[in-house]
Hints:
- The chain is α/β, with parallel strands linked by helices.
- It is 34% helix and 28% strand.
- The protein contains nine helices and twelve strands.
- The protein has helices at residues 40-48, 70-76, 92-97, 112-124, 140-154, 170-187, 198-204, 222-225, 228-235; strands at residues 2-11, 14-24, 29-34, 55-60, 63-64, 77-80, 158-162, 190-194, 207-212, 215-220, 239-243, 250-254.
- α6 (170-187) links the parallel β7 and β8.
Amino acid sequence: MLEAREISVQYGGRTVLSDASLCLSPGKITAIVGANGAGKTTLLKALNGSVPISSGEVLLDGTSLASLSRGEIARRVAVVAQETESRFPVTVREFVLTGRFAYGSSFGWEDAKDLEAATCAIAACELENFKDRLMNNLSGGERQRVVLARALAAQGRVLLLDEPTANLDLAHQTLMFRLVVERCATQQYASAIITHDLNLAAEFADEVVMLAAGRIVHKGAPREVLTAANIREIFRVEVILDTNPSSGKARVTQVY
């Protein structure tokens, strides 16, 4: 569905992403992990076409991203960026409706399909009681859920999420991941999620991509990538690995 083939990105003559290749497939979640500055956000932006690549190619359903308009990309790829405070006095409902902009909508011109998509996304993110509140009156975690709702309202079949659980409590971290899992399982979405929580990656991802210094150094199933040796190499910490007794998935515990 969305494939990167040996893509590189340069900023000011400095290479920040080198020869990265990965494929986001329908029904699958890819977790992108790595230390700060590893190139995770740059990779996600390159997959969305929001930063230019210096070499390689990104394909969306077999078509080069470079040949598609921003509107065509926005209708098929939804992005949840790291939470930033809205400076505009718009309500939650109005903000979520901006996710429909790629379909030709703007404030005051929403049709019934736009309203239905926004209403369903607000409900899925448990925001019904917030829909008339102003964005700049919400907490960071509440705003992050609204940003996810906007992405869901866009109904793009590819979801790219940059640290979507930042500022969320444990219950809403799980809610966010379960929403993505549900979309992938029932509607064959493809998703890439940047996360610093290795246990969430182990629990929910089908594939883990581990970056270091702008390169993909490990890629595969969570149990193959999230090993003590790999985590020590990338994060410079010691961990104990065992099995979550509830899910049977790998569990990572840092040794202090």
